[in-house]
Design a protein that fits this description.
The structure is a homotetramer of 100-residue chains. Chain A is mainly α. The first copy, chain A, has 5 helices and no strands.
Chain lengths: 100, 100, 100, 100
């Protein structure tokens, strides 16, 4: 994934729409939470077997893909503002998890 | 970001610990939610000015980085199981957002 | 609040629509999360001053009231199934908090 | 449930600890979300059968009861500040749900 490129697109998008005033770390952490809930909502009342079938349905797959993207886009925007290199963070967290 | 490499590490980690039985899409969507809340908790009672100072503190920065990683790692694991290419999902979602 | 009466209404509602099969503690905890996010969404990009004005707007007040109710209704249903007396739980938790 | 009494205790508790400055609707909606995630975390990797056994365990039951209380207490505090009568909200929402 080319994060820098995606972050640049998101930054320009926010700038053009005058959204920079709203994009602080607290608000973006809220947005990540809201989008995560929207992903979870797809599975709210489902059992494992149904979900395995659902994922083969093109429309449901697209809905899931859109919600994954929404979380990812806010996570990229958050990381850009917090000056966090997500890949580096992941590798360091994996190291910590392995020690546990 | 080399997602495939991270996803391979996560997959082997789950396999070794016999966690594959727990890693279904519903449970992983729950995990993304829980980790998102842990990121938000850092900012729960804070005002913008404080957060701008906090982010310069090495310990708080590391805590934020760890929570971002936790969300990202579960999102990568979820996408691996759902056979979703996150970067492609992001680019398609950006296209949809631009049309709005 | 007459919780028992509300819980009885909810239980009959679930029974009539054949929803009892979906109402287990895990699914209801998911529902509480989703409804909490919908409440938070109302304030996602807002500043304190705006929210103080918003709350005086009848339509926004009704939207907030509906989301509060959605959380409460799932919390009542959850407590019914878990055999938890919410008021007693609250009083015990307040005692613990005072000791901190 | 005597909400007014609980709300009075919470209001005095916040006043004594000088927490009123932090208790605005946005922050309290965040808190409801965080506590809801802590409830969900108890069930994160569990299957229905295990949860049915867990709930009979005194320690787990107390943990669940504490998390239910944490959500309820923030919901009561939120409703107090938003001047929302929770029981009335619930009855109105049930009416709307019945029409669906």
């Amino acid at each position: 994934m080319n994060e820098k490129r995606l972050q640049k697109i998101l930054s320009e998008f926010a700038c053009k729409r005058n959204w920079e005033q709203f994009h602080n770390l607290k608000n973006l952490a809220i947005s990540i939470n809201i989008e995560s809930s929207e992903l979870l909502e797809i599975f709210q009342w489902k059992k494992d077997d149904e979900i395995k079938l659902d994922i083969k349905n093109k429309q449901i797959k697209e809905k899931i893909s859109d919600e994954v993207a929404d979380i990812m886009l806010y996570l990229l925007r958050f990381s850009d503002l917090a000056k966090i290199d997500i890949e580096k963070s992941c590798l360091e967290k994996i190291k910590k998890n392995k020690k546990k």
